[in-house]
Amino acid sequence: MSSFPAQPLSPLDGRYRTAVAGLTEYLSEAGLNRARVEVEVEWLITLTDASLFGSEPLSALDQERLRALYLDFGQEEIDWLAEKEAVTRHDVKAIEYLVRDRLETLDLGHLAELVHFACTSEDINSAAYALTVKRAALDVWLPALQSVISTLEQIAHEHKDAAMLSRTHGQPATPSTMGKEIGVFAWRLKRVAGQVEASDFLAKFSGATGTWSAHVAADPSVDWPALTAGFITKLGLGFNPFTTQIESHDWQVELYDRVRHVGGILHNLATDIWTYISMGYFAQIPVAGATGSSTMPHKINPIRFENAEANLEISSGLFATLSQTLVTSRMQRDLTDSTTQRNIGVAFGHSLLALDNLRRGLGEISLSRDVLLADLDVNWEVLAEAIQTVVRAEIAAGRSKITDPYALLKDLTRGRRVGAPELAEFVRGLDIGDDARQRLLALTPATYTGLAANVVDELL
Predict the structure, then answer these.
(1) What is the tens place of the pLDDT at every residue in 73-121?
(2) Where would I find the Adenylosuccinate lyase PurB C-terminal domain in this sequence (predicted)?
């Protein structure tokens, strides 16, 4: 009914396509089918290498020609599969027919019956999904995350000594430095990124119900568990030997929960940076030609962080659904995982888009140190913690007879502003040693940052 030409329904395939293009190599339908062809071809080579059922090992040239079926996989194969699947109504069977067809053109038609030999579709799918998810996660998504972490580390080092007023429960609290606060996010993200990098990517290859039944029927003399495990390992994957028809997807649940964990940390980063911008701690660098508001010319909106926040929420919801759905399969197999897994790319896509926005956004802000210092200068009461702690130390050392230093400072500072002169007068009247008094008199909110800068240097 529409006069529009064909349009993408998802913004990931439209407005944001450039930002997530790297994922389409792996997590698109074409990427999945290319990996399926790869698994079929490599299984055929494995069978011939073992000289099974009268076959002989293929020459290096023939192996190279076979591997070209997936290495050179392109539009011709995409179109061929679309036409064949319209007839077969089965995506993996179409893959089998494609490989058989290409064997004929390579004068290797005598090997046709070894294509998809003793395989269930989920043998092919489990390996193909493991390959595509591994490559997408480690080669595309993880480098984008590491780029954000690297940017955060640079900001942390640059501003490690930039004193700022902390706010616990939204209230003025012991000062920190902006570098240390940004560094906390880098530290958190690096830890979970390491877990993602160490993830398992598992596949099964044990037939219709995970028993190697057809394999043994064809040749009971072969150690099929060892042969299939070696095959999967050679693909660069981990082998799951104990399954139903499907690989149980537990490794996917673990991975998606970790990626969702990263998303939660990034969401916290986005909201904190947004808040710091609203407080004037960070100024946004104007981009030539950009418009912040259709009616208010002065505005520069923190759209990168808002966009990241929204995409992280979408990604988190999708990953949560994947984790919840994939962990269960009725009896030996049902098809709910098939439809669910087709959305893996969408979940990673929204996460990758958020990472792109965060990286860009972090490059478009500059720290307003004068605002930080001005904020500190009107909150001298945050030194109450330092004063009462020093007094407690003096009491413990026998240099003070004050009985309740916390209550003393609470009466002075709770719920009201206390200026520098008033605090100085208070300190001068304290029953403490002279060295302690001089340390407190020299202290300001801007210098009360403890080891914040050292933590950045030592831990990042």
Answers:
(1) 999 999 999 999 999 999 999 999 999 999 999 999 999 999 999 999 9
(2) 329-449
Element containing residue 353 per DSSP (H, E): helix 344-362
| Measured distance CA(22)–CA(422) in Å, rounded | 60
Please tell me the predicted confidence (pLDDT) of residue 115.
98
The position carrying tokens 């074409």 is 30
Can 169 be counted among the known catalytic residues? yes
Q: How many helices (H) and strands (E) does the chain have?
A: 20, 6
d(CA 176, CA 198): 33
E strand intervals along 349-437: 365-367
DSSP-based three-state secondary structure for 163: strand
Structure tokens at 436: 């302690």
Spatial neighbors of 19 by CB under 8 A, at least 6 apart, are: 352, 353, 356
Query: What tokens does 62 get?
Result: 């023939």
- Residue-wise burial string across 415-453, b where 16 or more C-beta atoms lie within 10 A, e elsewhere: eeebeeeebeebbeebebbeebbeebeebbbbebbeebb
CA distance 203 to 162: 50
Q: Full-prediction pTM beyond 0.90?
A: yes
* pLDDT < 70 positions in the chain: 1-2, 287-299
Residue % of the chain over a pLDDT of 90: 91
59-81: string of b/e by CB count within 10 Å (b at 16+)? eeebbebbeebbeebeeebeeeb
**In this structure, are residues 136 and 142 in contact, taking their beta carbons and an 8 Å threshold?**
no
Grouping H, G, I as helix, E, B as strand and the rest as coil, residue 29 is helix
Do residues 179 and 162 touch, judged by C-beta distance below 8 A?
yes
- Phi, psi angles (nearest 5°) of residue 281: -65, -40
**Across-strand partners of 164?**
176
Domains and CATH numbers, the chain: 20-117 (1.10.275.10), 131-206+241-368 (1.20.200.10), 380-444 (1.10.40.30)
Q: Which of 245, 159, 166 is nearest to 207 (CA)?
A: 245
Judge contact between 153 and 144, C-beta under 8 A: no
CB atoms within 10 A of CB 7: 8
- Half-sphere exposure of residue 21, counting CA atoms within 13 Å on the CB side? 5
Catalytic residue among 169, 221, 298, 366: 169
Residues 6 or more apart whose CB falls under 8 angstroms from that of 30 comprise: 24, 73, 78
Please give the pLDDT value at position 171. 93
Q: Rounded to the nearest 10 degrees, what angle do helices 344-362 and 142-158 cross at?
A: 20
